[in-house]
Amino acid sequence: MRVFVTGATGYVGSAVVRELLGAGHQVVGLARSDPAADALTRSGAAVHRGDIADADSLRAGAAVADGVVYAANQHISETTDPAARALTELTAVEAIGEELAGTDRPFVITSGILGRTPGHLLTEETPTVVTAPRLQVELSVLALGGHGVRSSSVRLAPTVHGRGDTRGFVTALIDVARTTGVSAFVGDGSNRWPSVHRRDAAALYRLALESAPAGTRLHAVAEEGVPFRDVARAIGRRLKVPAVSLTPDEAGRHFAGFLAPFVSLDNPASSVLTRQRTGWRPTHPALVPDIEEGHYFGELGDEFNAEP
Fold first, then answer.
1. At 87, phi and psi to the nearest 5?
2. C-alpha distances in angstroms, 98 versus 59, 91, 208?
3. Sign of CA dihedral 79, 163, 184, 177
4. Strands of 2-6's sheet in order across
5. Tens digits of per-residue pLDDT, 168-204?
6. Is the model's pLDDT at 83 over the cut of 90?
7. What pLDDT is stored for residue 299 in this prediction?
8. Residue 278 and residue 218: Cα distance in Å, rounded?
């Protein structure tokens, strides 16, 4: 299968590219810069120059593909306006969808789990409620199932961990612990964070592309919910700093920036139906063992250090 991949040089997208190539697929990656194009070439993928803000380039990439994976991560971008980012993504996926309509070709979108059903188990059958602008992107792509597109959504766990993670939650928590001298959690730290290893997530994208029926929601969740205190303690052990409990008020001051709203969030999510429907079986290290391997602390190299 010839697969057009957006976000092909990103943290998750680069793993998806390698997964697809390893399974014998041809990959054409979207690249908006020379370094991105060079990285794709070194990985063995072909290059399609363009940008997710360029609808014509997206249509052209989709037109000559047997399937499309949208792994672009527009919520980490030049703009801090969530509505503007969501509009860019919605325009992008609608352009791709128009090109794929009526072809029964697969279109796999990236979505997320964070904050959808706080305190309650999220399953693949839980209806999507648009609590954030970006969720409209998922609804738009899934609706393409009624227009001759084999569309599916891979909902990533909040913590997609593994070597090469430089901007995720774990890295941010480590930075705070290094700066403050303590690795903190809120209250008893029993609130749960789902997690998935980067390479296991990539395998699910491939399975979705190859076989997911139209309108399928899939959960890239290897661990339903890791207690936050276990994450904090693992970080504390590696940094040799104490793991301490904070009150909610203390946590608001301690975890400055984007982390503050999330460190006390209880966000369990199931992947039972995903495993049943696709045969997906995560095989890479779980979150705490992955932290304990040491690569987050500069003790091991990035497995994909030659390409971003």
1. -65, -40
2. 8, 11, 20
3. negative
4. 46-49, 26-31, 2-6, 67-70, 106-112, 150-156, 216-220
5. 999 999 999 999 999 999 999 999 999 999 999 999 9
6. no
7. 65
8. 9
pTM above 0.85? yes
